[in-house]
Design a protein that fits this description.
The protein is an all-alpha fold and about 120 residues long. It has one domain. The longest helix is centred in the middle third of the chain and has 26 residues.
């Protein structure tokens, strides 16, 4: 149960960083209310987004190795790659229509975390 809480906290950080990167008013208001409005720039938020994704992936890897279920890790890796690449395309303006792919990648990461928890 402890590892699930760690993984879900990493996912929450990922979702919050993604919502800030995408400019959702609720997330940006929360940053401003905490006195961290200066962080609400893509140059700061994208590395934070990637760091939270990598943290979640690392925790998933550790848990899946302990449970002998690496299939969940591979699904999480695909989700991480999809979310990170799609977020980069959205933030740079190359392909702003890839916004659903960001949500798909985070959803795959959540699915992998739940799969690992159920199998473990």
């Amino acid at each position: 149960m402890k590892s699930l809480l760690k993984q879900l906290s990493g996912l929450l950080g990922t979702a919050f960083a993604a919502s800030c990167c995408l400019g959702l008013p609720l997330a940006l208001s929360a940053l401003s209310a905490a006195g961290l409005g200066f962080i609400a720039k893509d140059t700061y938020l994208f590395p934070v987004f990637v760091a939270f994704i990598l943290l979640t992936l690392w925790l998933l890897y550790r848990s899946s190795k302990k449970n002998n279920n690496t299939n969940a890790f591979w699904l999480g890796l695909v989700g991480c790659l999809v979310a990170s690449v799609a977020m980069w395309f959205v933030m740079t303006g190359i392909k702003p229509v890839l916004l659903p792919a960001v949500y798909l990648g985070i959803g795959l990461l959540l699915l992998a975390t739940l799969w690992d928890f159920i199998k473990g």
